[in-house]
Design goal:
The chain contains 16 helices and ten strands. It has 330 residues and is an alpha/beta fold. The longest helix is centred in the first third of the chain and has 23 residues. It is globular and about 60 Å long. The chain folds into two domains: 200 residues, Periplasmic binding protein-like II (D-Maltodextrin-Binding Protein, domain 2, 3-Layer(aba) Sandwich); 99 residues, 3-Layer(aba) Sandwich (D-Maltodextrin-Binding Protein, domain 2). It is found in: Periplasm. Belongs to the bacterial solute-binding protein SsuA/TauA family.
Length: 330
C-alpha cells in the first residue's frame, strides 16, 4: 500500500509539473509597431527571417502603424510593447510631461534615409540649383523634414526664403503629388526614389543621409515601465537585433535582398538589391545597437535648427545604452 501511495504521489507531481515545464518553453511575445514598412529597416527583417528572435526565445508580433504620431500613440496606449520610430518622438513625449517616459534602447539606422529627387536629369547638380525652385518637402516636425532643412542650411539655402516650400501634403501622398506634376524637387525614401528613376518620373541627385552625418534616425524604444518589468526580454530582443546587424555587414546586398524580399512583395528582387546597396554603401544601417552621445547631440542640433526642439533633453535621460553594451560585450 505504501508503495502504491508513493507511486500515485509521483504520478501526481509529474502531471502538475509537465504543463509548467511546457509553459516555460513558450516564447515571449513582444509587440512591435514600426513607423512604416521600408527597405531602410532591412536588419529588422533579417532578424525575423533568419530566426534570430526565435533563437532568443522571442516571438515578434510586427505591425506597421504608418506615421510617427500614430506609432507613438500606439506605444503610449499599450497597443505595442516596442516602437520602431525616430528618436525625436521620445523628446516630444518627454516635453509633454509624460510620467512614463519613452526610452531609446537599440538603434537600427544611423543616417537619414531620404534622397533628393529632381524632375529633370541633372548630371552636374549643385545644391545652389535649388534656389528659386518649388520643393516638395516632408511633414513639419518630422525627422525627414528637419534633416532636409538642416542640410539645405548647411549648403547656404534658406528653405523658407530661397524655395517655394510645400509641406502640407500627407506623407503617403508625397510621391503621387510629385508624379502628378507638383514640385521641381522632392525628398523621397527608397524604394520610391529608385522606382521613379526606373519609370523616368525623377532622378536622384543627392543623398540627405550622406550630407547630414550620423543621427539616431530610427530606434527601438519602449516605455520606462516596460523596460523595468521586462529587462531580460529587452536584452534578448537587442541581442537578436545585433546578430542581424552583424549578418547584414557580412553579407552582400543581393543576399540581404533575397532574405527580406517576403516583406516587399510588390518590389522585384533587383530593385530591393539596388536599394539595399545604396543604403549599405552610405552607412545607413547601424553596425551595432548603441545610440551614443554624439549622435544624440547631432539629433538635438538638427531639431534646434528647425525650431522643433522643445527642451534640451540629456542623452542619459532618454537613452539606455547599458543593454546594448552588455549584449555586445557578451
Amino acid at each position: 500500500m505504501k508503495k502504491l501511495r508513493l507511486l500515485l504521489y509521483a504520478s501526481l507531481v509529474f502531471v502538475l509539473i509537465l504543463p509548467l515545464a511546457a509553459c516555460s518553453n513558450e516564447p515571449t511575445e513582444i509587440r512591435v509597431a514600426e513607423v512604416t514598412r521600408s527597405i531602410f529597416y532591412a536588419p529588422q527583417y533579417v532578424a525575423l527571417e533568419k530566426g534570430f528572435f526565435e533563437d532568443e526565445g522571442i516571438s515578434v508580433d510586427l505591425k506597421t502603424t504608418w506615421g510617427g504620431d500614430k506609432t507613438m500613440t500606439t506605444l503610449l496606449s499599450d497597443g505595442a510593447d516596442v516602437a520602431l520610430v525616430g528618436s525625436e518622438t521620445s523628446i516630444y513625449v518627454k516635453a509633454r510631461g509624460a510620467n512614463d517616459p519613452v526610452i531609446n534602447f537599440a538603434q537600427l539606422t544611423q543616417t537619414d534615409g531620404t534622397f533628393l529627387v529632381a524632375r529633370e536629369e541633372q548630371p552636374d547638380f549643385k545644391w545652389e540649383d535649388l534656389k528659386g525652385s518649388t520643393f516638395l518637402g516632408q511633414r513639419k516636425g518630422g525627422m525627414p523634414q528637419m534633416v532636409g532643412e538642416y542640410v539645405l542650411k548647411q549648403k547656404g539655402i534658406d528653405p523658407h526664403e530661397d524655395l517655394n516650400l510645400i509641406q502640407n501634403v500627407e506623407f503617403a501622398n508625397i510621391p503621387n503629388a510629385f508624379a502628378s506634376g507638383t514640385g521641381d524637387y522632392v525628398q523621397l525614401f527608397e524604394p520610391t526614389a529608385s522606382v521613379f528613376e526606373r519609370e523616368g518620373k525623377g532622378h536622384i541627385v543627392a543623398s540627405f543621409g550622406t550630407e547630414s552625418g550620423h543621427v539616431p534616425y530610427t530606434v527601438f524604444m519602449a516605455k520606462q515601465s516596460y523596460m523595468n518589468e521586462n529587462k531580460e526580454s529587452i536584452e534578448k530582443f537587442t541581442r537578436a537585433l545585433h546578430k542581424a546587424q552583424t549578418w547584414v555587414q557580412e553579407h552582400s546586398a543581393k543576399e540581404i535582398a533575397e532574405v527580406i524580399q517576403p516583406y516587399f512583395e510588390d518590389s522585384d528582387l533587383e530593385l530591393i538589391e539596388i536599394v539595399v546597396d545604396r543604403y549599405k554603401s552610405q552607412g545607413s544601417f547601424a553596425t551595432d545597437p548603441i545610440l551614443d552621445k554624439e549622435e544624440w547631440n547631432n539629433l538635438k542640433a538638427i531639431m534646434d535648427e528647425a525650431g522643433e526642439l522643445p527642451e534640451d533633453v540629456q542623452h542619459s535621460t532618454l537613452v539606455n545604452t547599458d543593454i546594448a553594451k552588455d549584449v555586445i560585450k557578451k
